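Predict both folds.
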Amino acid sequence: MKPLLFSIGILLIGAAAAGPETFTRHPRSYQVGPNPSAIAAGDLNGDGWPEIITCDIGNLSSPRDERPANDELSFLVAQGDLLYISQPPLRAGFAPYSVVIANIDALKALDIVVGSFLASNKQAVTLFRNIGENLFEPDQFAIPSDGLPYTKQRDADDQPVFAKPGITSIAIADFSHDGFRDVIATAWSCDSLVYLPGNDKTHFGEPKFFPAAGGPRDIAAADLDGDGKLDVVTTMYSSGTVAIWKGDGAGGFTEVNHFSSRGNLPHKIRIADVNGDDKPDLIVSHCSADDSIVIFYGEGGVDFPLSQEIHLGKDHRSIEHEIRDILVEDFNGDKRKDIAAACFASNQVILLTNDSPNAGIPQQFERESYPFKEGHPRALCAADFDKSGRADLGVALWGTNSVALLLAKSPIESKAAPATTSAKKREKTSH
């Protein structure tokens, strides 16, 4: 079903001195490796404080080079009171691009799973199994790609510019209801989804492939239709579309819907109930072609007939912000979902706080901007870094190769926030 369209513009309201209310930036920053392109946080040692992991891709070059990219993850161990100590880096495949913290081996401690973009097929997915005392045992998983097509750019010598399979995103869940966590990943270079079933002996079994023409770039999982089986959604970067994949509860997926993302180069996708009607919605951001975020409102199935477009830039025809990541969480504690965006080109994190009075569509948002004088926001994660009971933001920054923290204020602090030079904006709807 083709989604109906609502067009959203952002207009400045109030005085320019009305400033951010939800977060305050922590004065410390934490050094990580070159060009951190993904970030995750979780309590990896059981002390109640979240550790920080970043995927540091470095500079990408030809997959035929001996080292086409960096292959390290930065590991920051929390010491309490927002202090972090850097540990020796973890080694994955070249260009670690996506990271998820989850319990894979059924032991108490959380593990780390990484998908690498320029890795050989033998190092495309790496499991770092947590063996305690901040130590991890790496296990590489091969994704044989000899039979997979290479569908992306070639150089002047007709050689592939990227590696196969070209993992860009991973999601982890028990898709087959066997008690073991599985991995499903986007193989962008090969126009495929890759499914690694959980296994009690080897952690992950032999991969299965699902053709996904259109350049699958990001993936998220949820039970969209309430049948008890997890489905997945993907952004299709090359074709400018969103694909819905119905899960069969046994590790199989069938594409059941495909529609325009309402922009060029759809990049990130998230699943959340934005308008509070107890039905999953899709949130899609676009990168390098326009500065838009689109909310596709669900009806409790695999159709998303209504959509709402949010333009972060002043001119839809030009790139002002370059959205590289988004998160959807209740950041201000009002039980409504807000949207945070890492804006690489404009050196800021933009927060859209949901102040809608009800579940009506379109939803209403106010805009808060958190600028970074140095460093370009590239990736985001949410965690309670200061044990305040509120979701904070971890921001991976290029240029400074560091992580910054935006800490959620208490409701009292937010209401009493002093005026700053940051502008506050409200979205105005036009149908």
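Second protein follows, with its predicted structure tokens after the sequence.
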Amino acid sequence: MQRRKRYVGVTLKVDTAGVALPITVDWSEKISYPVDEIIDVRHTKGSISGEEGLRYTLRFGNVTTYLWKTGKFWYVEEKIVDPDRMLP
């Protein structure tokens, strides 16, 4: 399955050590997902762009996904759905 970068808004909580932790990911102006768990944070390259940044492994309910921060921007690697391959 192909993916593309989708820039998202993120609400952060900054702890007393100055570490920023995402608490919600804003998919659109009307859709926001609360983060249930931060599983991992590491400095690495994005699989799509190859840009270096922080990759957060997050859990939203039963879904685990990555949230990337490069510079001042946040993004997810959105799945591209092919409408011709969808079942009726």
